């Protein structure tokens, strides 16, 4: 499939605003949708898919600035608490939009400059609303520009191999950033921690000396009060002696004359007179021998830097004269094309143009989840898990199974402390791609309650999946 023309900023804005805000969906699901949009934009920017990143960021800003504040549950304490971090991040989202906008304009201008003249009239006739897969794909920003489009169903092994390499690269970068932060914290702790220990040690020593001095002086005063006043000089010396006092340093006096009464302070010293010029510099020489003895020899002329350093460090002029002309650089010609990116085409599109991307599941996901849920299954209780993953090359890859805090009954399971789920996903560069749960006493189906729960997952990610397992029935 050949890439189509890149979308303009105006077209991307119209696509971002084309969604339905349903106030009947709980507020917490819309805040989760806003987090998902921001994560989608981050992953799209890492893949070089700036068109999709712009759509996700613009939709995020519309959702936060216009829609969420009109929700009936907006004034609830829990809703205001969930909305606060989204409101604080809106300035960063707008700044990211301003950074991406010139890139999109440049790509669109380059396409306009390089396209054949006959395509202009043909494209003007395609302004009508798209109805077929090809028309929707032509307006998909992930498949436009310099993208190499492949079919995920026909290239599953390639998709998994590319995803493994990209995820390994991201994990390496994330671990390196963590080690850098830990190393910086360790340095700060060692510096400030040792300094505090030294300060405490010095302070304790000073306190001990002060206490010893005060006790010695107190004992001396008590001893002098109890003894008679007529004492010899020899006996008084040990009692009055505590520590030798060090007088303030003074300039040395070399005058051995007897001491006289102190004189008034001298007037402020005047600056020393300037030295007279040396006469032998200006006077004519007496004879040649006198000149050679008193005057310094003439400094020889310096060798030009170009001559002495022309071999290892040639200047532009010398290089042009002594070296043959260089062949023309390849960069002097037309600019090189941008590096092509790989994108797997979606399986389908919704009516508003949102793509349904391919989702890759681990082969051992079901067995691993049933092993974890076995204790609840034996008790006749449901259990649910969160499917977390990452988008790579316009496809979704489930790579983590998260078991959250939950309240389980025989026919329901509700997650609790959902903020911890978002914190974990943000720290591990993951997105919530769906959920999985068990029916310990019933067959495999989606109940009305399950459908209502899953609607919250599909608010802003229509590819979100729901998996039901009935371990007591075959097939499960």
Automatic annotation (TrEMBL):
Basic and acidic residues bias locations: 276-285
InterPro entries named in the record: JAMM/MPN+_dom (IPR000555), MPN (IPR037518), USP8_dimer (IPR015063)
Molecular function via GO: K63-linked deubiquitinase activity; metallopeptidase activity
One Pfam assignment: USP8_dimer
Biased composition (Pro residues): 259-275
SUPFAM superfamilies for this protein: JAB1/MPN domain, USP8 N-terminal domain-like
GO BP terms, alphabetized: protein K63-linked deubiquitination
Domain MPN per the UniProt entry, residue ranges: 359-476
Cellular component terms per the entry's GO annotation: endosome; membrane
Chain spans, region Disordered: 209-237, 252-338
Name of protein: Endosome-associated ubiquitin isopeptidase (AmsH)
């Amino acid at each position: 499939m050949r890439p189509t023309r890149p979308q303009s900023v105006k077209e991307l804005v119209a696509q971002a605003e084309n969604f339905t805000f349903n106030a009947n969906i709980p507020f917490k699901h819309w805040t989760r949708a806003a987090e998902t949009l921001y994560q989608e934009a981050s992953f799209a920017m890492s893949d070089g898919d700036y068109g999709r990143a712009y759509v996700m960021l613009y939709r995020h800003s519309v959702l936060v600035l216009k829609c969420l504040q009109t929700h009936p549950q907006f004034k609830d304490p829990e809703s205001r608490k969930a909305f606060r971090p989204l409101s604080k991040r809106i300035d960063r989202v707008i700044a990211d939009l301003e950074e991406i906008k010139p890139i999109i304009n440049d790509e669109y201008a380059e396409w306009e400059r390089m396209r054949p003249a006959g395509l202009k009239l043909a494209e003007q006739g395609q302004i009508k609303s798209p109805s077929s897969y090809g028309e929707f794909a032509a307006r998909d920003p992930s498949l436009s520009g310099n993208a190499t489009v492949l079919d995920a169903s026909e290239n599953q092994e390639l998709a998994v191999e590319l995803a493994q390499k990209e995820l390994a690269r991201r994990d390496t970068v994330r671990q390196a950033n963590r080690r850098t932060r830990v190393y910086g914290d360790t340095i700060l702790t060692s510096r400030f921690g040792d300094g505090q220990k030294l300060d405490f040690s010095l302070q304790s020593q000073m306190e001990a000396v002060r206490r010893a001095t005060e006790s010695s002086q107190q004992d001396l005063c008590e001893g002098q009060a109890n003894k008679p006043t007529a004492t010899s000089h020899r006996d008084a010396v040990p009692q009055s002696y505590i520590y030798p006092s060090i007088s303030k340093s003074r300039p040395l006096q070399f005058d051995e004359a007897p001491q006289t009464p102190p004189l008034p302070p001298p007037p402020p010293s005047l600056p020393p007179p300037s030295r007279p010029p040396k006469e032998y510099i200006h006077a004519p020489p007496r004879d040649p021998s006198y000149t050679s003895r008193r005057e310094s020899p003439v400094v020889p002329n310096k060798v030009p830097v170009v001559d002495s350093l022309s071999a290892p460090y040639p200047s532009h002029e010398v290089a042009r004269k002594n070296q043959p002309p260089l062949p023309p650089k390849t960069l002097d010609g037309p600019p090189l094309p941008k590096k092509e990116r790989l994108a797997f085409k979606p399986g389908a599109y919704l009516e508003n143009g949102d793509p349904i991307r391919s989702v890759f599941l681990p082969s051992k996901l079901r067995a691993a989840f049933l092993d974890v849920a076995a204790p609840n299954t034996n008790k006749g209780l449901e259990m649910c898990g969160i499917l977390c993953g990452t988008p790579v090359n316009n496809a979704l890859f489930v790579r983590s199974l998260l078991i959250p805090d939950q309240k389980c009954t025989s026919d329901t399971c509700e997650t609790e402390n959902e903020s911890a789920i978002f914190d974990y996903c943000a720290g591990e560069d993951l997105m919530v791609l769906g959920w999985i749960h068990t029916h310990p006493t019933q067959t495999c189906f989606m109940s009305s309650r399950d459908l209502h729960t899953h609607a919250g997952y599909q608010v802003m990610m229509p590819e979100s999946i729901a998996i039901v397992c009935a371990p007591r029935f075959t097939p499960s």
